């Protein structure tokens, strides 16, 4: 049984690859390395450098490695940037998924775990979302993820494809192999970069109706996310009943102020974040309930906030520790 991980050279994907190997499953990676890094792929795991829009490369990969299931993580993952680049977002997230699913159908591969997003919810009416919460995405990115879920639903009806989609918010932290988040748009790498370069991080608004006045969101460790993907793959493989969608969430959330305080303690860099005005459209609190995933995928928050920050900080290139002054 070989699982194909699309985007397996990326931050989340490479952690999923390690989790699959830890479960004694064979893995092959396809990644165009537009944001992934070849060195993030563990030794001994085949890496096919190709974009999913290359139908011939996808078909050849499925056939050559005898793939029996797919974990689909590849995509253009920047919600804010997707507003500026909608066509690129739909091409990479929707057209590429159509190509992948078509190739899977031709190869007789009938199992897929889709790495979706809580961006499908947009700004919900409730502070805690579950799988029954209405989906109202507010960016081309969120829309493209929801379309991906629709594609799976429709093909499942047409062909019997077994599938599930995992929705989650902010993935942080690192595993022991030093794979780190390379995104210039995510909170942890942005703050770390500012600390390394002697700049002061900022909080956008501290007057929200939350315990400390700052926004509350879900932050979940990348290894916990990877474990859920593997559990979903096992469930598909075993033929057990599986939900079409699972939220991976804490149910409680973490405030931006709590993150900054933990970063100060973990890094040893003494700073007090600047307070900037609120950003338009930022809800006070959005977190996801993970009850269904806990029931079926052994989902739980295995890492504390300190674990998340410490693992992410220690995984940065060595110059981060060298250049940051307490």
From TrEMBL:
Keyword terms: Carbohydrate metabolism, Isomerase, NAD
Catalytic activity: UDP-alpha-D-glucose = UDP-alpha-D-galactose
Top-rank lineage group of the source organism: Bacteria
Record bears the keyword Isomerase: yes
Gene Ontology MF term list: UDP-glucose 4-epimerase activity
Pathway, per record: Carbohydrate metabolism; galactose metabolism
Enzyme class: isomerase
EC nos: 5.1.3.2
NAD-dependent epimerase/dehydratase domain mapped to chain residues: 3-249
Cofactor: NAD(+)
SUPFAM superfamilies documented for this protein: NAD(P)-binding Rossmann-fold domains
Record family assignment: Belongs to the NAD(P)-dependent epimerase/dehydratase family.
UniProt cross-references to NCBIfam families, sorted A to Z: galE
Name of this protein: UDP-glucose 4-epimerase
Organism encoding this protein: Mycolicibacterium austroafricanum (Mycobacterium austroafricanum)
């Amino acid at each position: 049984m070989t699982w194909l991980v699309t985007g397996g050279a990326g931050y989340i994907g490479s952690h999923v690859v390690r989790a699959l190997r830890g479960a004694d499953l064979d893995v092959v990676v396809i990644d165009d390395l537009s944001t992934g890094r070849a060195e993030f792929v563990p030794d001994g795991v085949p890496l096919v450098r190709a974009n999913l829009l290359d139908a011939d490369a996808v078909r050849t990969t499925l056939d050559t490695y005898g793939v029996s299931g797919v974990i689909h993580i590849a995509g253009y993952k920047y919600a804010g940037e997707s507003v500026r680049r909608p066509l690129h977002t739909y091409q990479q997230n929707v057209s590429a998924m159509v190509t992948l699913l078509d190739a899977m159908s031709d190869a007789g591969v009938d199992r897929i775990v889709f790495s979706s997003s809580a961006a499908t919810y947009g700004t919900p009416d409730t502070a805690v979302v579950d799988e029954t919460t209405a989906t109202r995405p507010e960016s081309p990115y969120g829309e493209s993820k929801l379309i991906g879920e629709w594609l799976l639903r429709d093909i499942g009806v047409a062909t019997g494809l077994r599938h599930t989609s995992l929705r989650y918010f902010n993935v942080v932290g690192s595993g022991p192999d030093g794979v780190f988040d390379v995104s210039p748009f995510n909170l942890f790498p942005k703050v770390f970069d500012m600390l390394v370069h002697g700049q002061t991080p900022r909080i956008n608004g501290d007057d929200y109706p939350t315990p400390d006045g700052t926004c509350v969101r879900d932050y979940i460790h990348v290894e916990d996310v990877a474990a859920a993907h593997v559990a979903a793959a096992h469930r598909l493989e075993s033929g057990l009943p599986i939900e079409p969608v699972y939220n991976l969430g804490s149910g409680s959330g973490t405030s931006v102020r709590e993150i900054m305080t933990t970063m100060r303690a973990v890094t040893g860099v003494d700073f007090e974040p600047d307070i900037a005005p609120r950003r338009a459209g930022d809800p006070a609190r959005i977190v996801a309930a993970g009850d269904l995933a806990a029931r079926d995928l052994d989902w739980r928050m295995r890492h504390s906030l300190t674990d998340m920050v410490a693992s992410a900080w220690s995984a940065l290139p060595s110059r981060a520790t060298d250049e940051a002054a307490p």
